[in-house]
């Protein structure tokens, strides 16, 4: 006997909404990515906001390029002061902010999807603290020999290696990963504070700016570095999208569908670390972008899924806005951009912890 209607039975709760109608974006013959209408609309809105924030970054302030001349300057017509601002002062800084924010946003989405924890991010597992310790080591013990960004990158990689060994299961167990990361982060933070205390005042001030995350004095070489990281890491990240979506239904279901949840989690964490390490290498350990961007993206769409693209766009927007404040707010002039992201991220973390506690998840 065939049912005469489709829908939930009387007296039963309907299933939770999973999103608007969706299709698939086909890339080549082997990759088909699920695309929802609300996600497309949200992505377009984020791109418009990013364009507006970027224009404001280039045009505001005493050295800004007037909006009427900005289009011409971007197409190769910049001369004199405008050329200096675009090519040396603000142009590279803006591109680094966009790339770094995107890398951190995607990294946070990967990590939160792999751990199924809204509080999870590469910051939690000690990557940022390891980068700070590496930068401090380069500044104190190898001054002039090893550049501070290289030391930061080495410190991030070493911290992740230590976490990998400490868990006993690599990156497969999210609970052990977080606990080991907190321990490694505490040790790295203590070492960084010692170095700042031991160094001379001027050098310590410069190091403090870097370990808080800074976009000042960025170059096109930095922009090329973060661009290369995105170019290498984003394609395999896109290939993981469907597996991560399946994994959010539970390991048993993912295993039954042939998704391989253990390997998927490991690949996701490795890619998240690679993206974060690249961001740290060019801008220092900028906090909370990786934590907040995926959660904001999820709330903008109110649908399930890892939201990798939207998290990247949200991270880029957040970092450009934070850097715009760092450049233009006269009261806090020349503060490292990481100070602004920590202020916003700390407030958001408090909200998230309160909400999770009221729901009985903490």
Terminal CA distance reads 47 Å
Spans with pLDDT under 50 lasting ≥5 residues? Answer: 1-20
Described by the principal axes of the CA atoms, the overall outline is: globular
Q: Write the element-wise H/E pattern from the N-terminal end onward.
A: EEHHHHHHHHHHHHHHH
Number of strands: 2
Amount of beta strand:
under 5%
- The secondary structure category is mainly alpha
The largest β sheet comes out as:
2 strands, antiparallel
Order of adjacent strands in the largest pleated sheet: 1-2
Number of domains as seen in the coordinates: 1
Question: Looking at this structure, what is the CATH superfamily?
Answer: ABC transporter involved in vitamin B12 uptake, BtuC
What's the helical proportion of residues?
Answer: 55-70%
The CATH topology is ABC transporter involved in vitamin B12 uptake, BtuC
What would you say this structure looks like, in words?
The chain is mainly alpha-helical and 362 residues long. It is globular. The protein has helices spanning 37-59, 67-77, 80-89, 91-115, 127-141, 148-167, 174-198, 201-211, 220-239, 241-247, 251-256, 261-283, 289-301, 308-328, 337-358, and strands at residues 22-27, 31-36. The chain has a single domain (38-67, 81-357), classed as ABC transporter involved in vitamin B12 uptake, BtuC (Orthogonal Bundle), CATH 1.10.3470. The model is unreliable at 1-20 (pLDDT under 50). It is built from 15 helices and two strands. A two-stranded antiparallel ribbon has the order 1-2.
């Amino acid at each position: 006997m065939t049912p005469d209607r489709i829908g939930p039975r009387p007296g039963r709760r309907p299933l939770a909404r999973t999103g608007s109608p969706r299709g698939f974006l086909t890339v080549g013959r082997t990759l088909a990515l699920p695309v929802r209408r609300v996600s497309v609309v949200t992505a377009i809105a984020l791109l418009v906001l990013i364009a507006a924030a970027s224009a404001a970054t280039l045009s505001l302030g005493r050295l800004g390029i007037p909006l009427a001349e900005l289009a011409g300057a971007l197409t190769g017509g910049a001369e004199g002061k405008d050329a200096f601002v675009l090519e040396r002062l603000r142009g590279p800084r803006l591109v680094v902010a966009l790339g770094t924010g995107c890398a951190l946003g995607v990294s946070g989405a990967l990590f939160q999807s792999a751990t199924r924890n809204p509080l999870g991010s590469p910051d939690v597992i000690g990557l940022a603290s390891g980068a700070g310790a590496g930068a401090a080591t380069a500044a104190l013990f190898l001054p002039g020999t090893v550049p501070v960004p290289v030391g930061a990158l080495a410190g991030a990689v070493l911290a992740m290696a230590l976490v990998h060994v400490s868990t006993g299961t690599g990156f497969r167990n999210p609970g052990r990963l977080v606990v080991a990361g907190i321990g490694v982060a505490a040790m790295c933070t203590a070492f960084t504070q010692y170095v700042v205390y031991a160094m001379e005042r001027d050098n310590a001030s410069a190091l403090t700016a870097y370990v808080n995350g800074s976009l000042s004095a960025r170059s096109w070489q930095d922009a090329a570095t973060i661009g290369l990281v995105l170019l290498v890491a984003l394609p395999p990240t896109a290939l993981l999208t469907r597996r991560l979506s399946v994994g959010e239904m539970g390991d048993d279901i993912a295993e039954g569908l042939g998704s391989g949840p253990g390997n998927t989690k490991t690949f996701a964490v490795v890619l998240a670390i690679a993206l974060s390490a690249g961001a740290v290498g060019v801008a220092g350990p900028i906090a909370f972008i990786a934590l907040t961007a995926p959660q904001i993206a999820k709330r903008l769409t109110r649908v399930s899924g890892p939201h990798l693209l939207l998290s990247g766009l949200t991270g880029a927007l957040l970092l450009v806005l934070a850097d715009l404040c760092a450049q233009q707010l006269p009261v806090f002039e020349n503060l490292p951009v990481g100070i602004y992201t920590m202020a916003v991220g700390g407030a958001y973390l408090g909200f998230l912890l309160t909400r999770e506690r009221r729901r009985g998840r903490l």
